[in-house]
Specification:
mainly alpha; elongated
Length: 94
């Protein structure tokens, strides 16, 4: 059951990262976030692939799972910090 829930959570996180990358594309106020979001998703996929291989071969699978979580959590913390500092996802009308 743990692996099923992980699969749902990690796939959802990857979907969110790609959706945010799409949202940030072309928005000069979020310059660099398209690339950052895509790189975060790719790094997560690499760690999750390493998790699957290590899990199959009896290696340190948990470490790769935690690295994938840390990658996602870091992205989330940075975007929340940006939003708390006053940056908006939608352009405000003046």
């Amino acid at each position: 059951m743990h692996l099923v829930c992980d699969l749902i959570a990690f796939n959802s996180a990857l979907l969110v990262l790609f959706l945010f990358a799409w949202r940030f594309s072309g928005d000069s106020r979020w310059k660099g976030w398209t690339v950052y979001s895509i790189l975060t998703a790719l790094l997560m996929m690499a760690f999750l692939t390493a998790f699957g291989v290590a899990n199959h071969l009896g290696g340190p699978a948990g470490a790769f799972e935690k690295l994938a979580s840390l990658t996602r959590t870091t992205w989330s913390a940075v975007i929340v910090a940006k939003l708390y500092s006053g940056r908006r996802l939608v352009q405000t009308e003046t």
